[in-house]
Amino acid sequence: MKTSIATVSISGIFAEKLAAIASAGFDGIEIFEQDFTASDFTPVEVGRMVRDHGLEITLFQPFRDFEGLPEPHRTRAFARAARKFDLMNQLGTDLVLVCSSAHPAAMGGIDRMAADFAELGDLAKSHGIRVGFEALAWGRHVNDHRDAWEVVRRADHPNVGLILDSFHTLGRKIDPDTIRRIPGDRIFFVQLADAPAIDMDLLYWSRHFRNMPGEGDLDVTSFMRAVMATGYSGPLSLEIFNDQFRAGLPRLVACDGHRSLIAVMDQVRRAEPTLSVDLPTFPAAAAVQRVEFIEFATSPEEAPALESLLAATGFARAGAHVSKPVTLWRQGGANVLVNTEGKGFTHSSFVAHGTTVSEVALMVADAQATHARALALLAQDHTQAALPGELKIPAFRGVGGSILRLLDATETLSRIWSVDFCSDAAPTEGAGLTGIDHIGQTMAYDEMLSWALFYTAIFDAKKAPMVDVADPDGLVRSQAVQSGGLRITLNGAEARRTLAGRFVEETFGASVQHIAFATADIFLTAAKLAEGGFPVLRIGANYYDDVEARFGLDPALVARMRASNVLYDEDAGGQFFQLYSEPRPDGFFFEIVQRQGNYLGYGAANAAFRIAAQKRSTRPSGMPRL
Ligand SMILES: O=C(O)c1ccc(O)c(O)c1
Ligand SMILES: [Mg+2]
Q1: C-alpha distances in Å from residue 217, one per residue of 170, 210, 457, 466, 589
Q2: CA 44 to centroid of ligand 1, rounded, Å
Q3: Nearest protein Cα to ligand 1, atom 9
Q4: Binding residues for a divalent metal cation, per the UniProt record (predicted)?
Q5: Does residue 33's CB lie within 6 angstroms of at least one atom of ligand 1?
């Protein structure tokens, strides 16, 4: 599978783009003409730079407003084409993309356009060049790949073929299966892009909101299945116009791009096994069974504060690691490790972020298989020496450099608690917490798409629609991802003074800002927590008046909620109760939730009230922040 990416897709000056694209593992680039024109290199130099990075120029684009023109525009268009073909010869590329005309004078007429392309084909042939015709979704006369194909078919020239772009096909809701009728050898090039489902002007949507396959809502997999069914074997090239990517980190965006191509082609071959997809084999995406433990990195000085918060939350010390200064805290099915080791990865996490969640361990069906898939999808492996007798547990890096560790029920890995830990207490009932419901990870807003793609590519996972949460000091975006028993909320902070933004700043980019534990009886749990001195977050009276009116709740239930600072939400499937701790100075907090029936959300409607209360709790007597 030959992979390529358009230079418009990432930020930086030309040399930076090349370095990022090469290091992400692409085979080639599409040169977007504007990027070349803006550079200070000659075409021969650019060609050499590209090849020196081990890349090839798969396409030069776009050549605009060519077909169906009256004179004198037509003659000018051919003269322009001759100049560009000379330029391409110097660059060292043989394929140009002609996008369908948006010229006000363009006349249309399928045979007229076909005749123009036949003549262009002769000119191209004399330069050793091939021409691909792409239907722009907003083209004046051609805005559908079926019409572009008919023009190409009638031009009937070996140097003229079709270029497909998933955005233009799927963005106009054209059935991608219509591609199956096109002969694969007449498709010269395929561009891929996804986009979020937002109803807006096609041109504006395309130029600002495209994203990597799998990051948006278009069915890029069905599009690629149809393309592969034609026998097409040319490059798969990302062409992503996106305001955020243009300002993003070149290497991160390029790596996301490569990951997205691997993920989408893996989906293609699994959905339609008869297709031949040139991709190394690796295991299928699997769902996570549950979060087995969460590990905090801390220091001997800071550990007591964390441990007393755990004790106040109903956890009891249940054991210690056989060789390292790590204690195990347990309640129901929730396991929390507190690691005060003064060396290695944990210590670096503590030094970088302060007391922080350095590791999340996931129970899966086959830890080695999930690990192999993660690495195939470009996750960074994490290895650490285990002492003789200790288990070697596969792991890879996740958000903020933290670790995702993989456990399974096989003979060796299932023995982690008996091999690596010695138990020093019987399980206690605590405050009735049964396990980990979800984990809240906070990041800069422009990393959200990357990390959502990370989870959905590696695991069998689904994204919920993104929601906006109003913090008093700015908007925060929240996107939930669920894979079986792993529920993650990704919170993207755009503004620095939001609770989420401050957490990112105060912790120098830690990831886990909150852990939500599950209970089967929120009021019983609330009572036990009150006895244990849990620092519950106080919720104001206005909230309870509103929630009673909004859902028509029984006033007796609302009175209990008010007395225990419990929040409420419901959806079509069921009910949801939540309560929170006050935030620690860096913004980290605990949440406790009870799901009833088949409630699927995370109480997003309550987030604004919770954040306001958390901010009040850290600003004494409601004093404004200076
Ligand atoms: O937005 C455009 O003009 C444009 C240009 C070239 C392309 O390949 C494309 O998909 C869009
Ligand atoms: Mg395109």
Answers
A1: 10, 10, 14, 12, 32
A2: 25
A3: 136
A4: 134, 165, 191, 239
A5: no
What per-residue confidence (pLDDT) applies to 619?
Answer: 67
A 10 A CB-CB count for 575 gives 15
For strands 160-165 and 187-192, give the pairing.
Answer: parallel
Pocket flag, ligand 1, residue 194 (CB < 6 Å): no
Domain count for the chain: 3
User: What pLDDT digit, counting tens, does each position of 155-186 carry?
Assistant: 999 999 999 999 999 999 999 999 999 999 99
Find out whether the beta carbon of 132 lies less than 6 Å from any atom of ligand 1: no
513 vs 557: CA distance, rounded Å: 30
- Whether 278 maps to a domain, the answer reads no
Range of the domain at 330: 290-423
Three-state DSSP state, 412? coil
Contacts of residue 94, Cβ cutoff 8 Å, sequence gap at least 6: 88, 128, 129, 130
What is the C-alpha to C-alpha distance for residues 383 and 397, in angstroms, rounded to an integer?
10
Find out whether 227 and 185 touch, Cβ atoms under 8 Å: no
37 lies in the same domain as 131: yes
pLDDT value of residue 79: 98
**Same domain for 369 and 240?**
no
CA separation, residue 117 to residues 73, 81, 191, 278, 441 (Å)? 15, 12, 21, 32, 53
CATH code (residue 298): 3.10.180.10
Last residue of a domain, one of 204, 238, 271: 271
Two tokens, residue 175:
């059935």
Q: Is the pLDDT of residue 622 over 50?
A: no
| pTM (two decimals) | 0.95
Q: Which atom of ligand 1 is nearest to the CA of 61?
A: 6
DSSP H helices in 92-138: 110-126
